[in-house]
């Protein structure tokens, strides 16, 4: 049996490094457990609707469950556990449990958990990010016309934005510092 020459061995190591790096950066999950739940992170604006989906590759007739950020059960299979009419069953099959949350609020942001009740229990997490829509900017600090040459302090505020809004001042088309 012949051993590879040094350049060939280096080429093999480089190829493995490239393949490993490609797998890591492409979010490929190599999991041999067909009962491991899979979820995805979701982003939604305040007032919108978000769908949380949990899937397993194979079914052993174990029940899937969604829990909220406080670990309160939302749905256990097709059964509603929390009395919040904003949360509805979207789909329930032997390999999937999907729920929707309507009229999403900032307080709905956080990490939700999908569990499958096998031995041992397997879980997956989905982070819900809620974006706040900024309110209309309000300018204060003036009551009447300001005579030319006088100084005035103006304040611009907007509430409800997440992430925080970036406010800018303009005089005509020119942005001010």
From TrEMBL:
<keyword id="KW-0732">Signal</keyword>
<feature type="signal peptide">
    <location>
        <begin position="1"/>
        <end position="26"/>
    </location>
</feature>
<dbReference type="InterPro" id="IPR007110">
    <property type="entry name" value="Ig-like_dom"/>
</dbReference>
<dbReference type="Pfam" id="PF13927">
    <property type="entry name" value="Ig_3"/>
</dbReference>
<dbReference type="InterPro" id="IPR003598">
    <property type="entry name" value="Ig_sub2"/>
</dbReference>
<dbReference type="GO" id="GO:0042734">
    <property type="term" value="C:presynaptic membrane"/>
</dbReference>
<keyword id="KW-0677">Repeat</keyword>
<feature type="domain" description="Ig-like">
    <location>
        <begin position="37"/>
        <end position="129"/>
    </location>
</feature>
<protein>
    <submittedName>
        <fullName>Cell adhesion molecule 3-like</fullName>
    </submittedName>
</protein>
<dbReference type="InterPro" id="IPR013783">
    <property type="entry name" value="Ig-like_fold"/>
</dbReference>
<keyword id="KW-1015">Disulfide bond</keyword>
<feature type="domain" description="Ig-like">
    <location>
        <begin position="137"/>
        <end position="177"/>
    </location>
</feature>
<dbReference type="InterPro" id="IPR013106">
    <property type="entry name" value="Ig_V-set"/>
</dbReference>
<dbReference type="InterPro" id="IPR036179">
    <property type="entry name" value="Ig-like_dom_sf"/>
</dbReference>
<dbReference type="GO" id="GO:0007156">
    <property type="term" value="P:homophilic cell adhesion via plasma membrane adhesion molecules"/>
</dbReference>
<dbReference type="Pfam" id="PF07686">
    <property type="entry name" value="V-set"/>
</dbReference>
<dbReference type="InterPro" id="IPR003599">
    <property type="entry name" value="Ig_sub"/>
</dbReference>
<keyword id="KW-0393">Immunoglobulin domain</keyword>
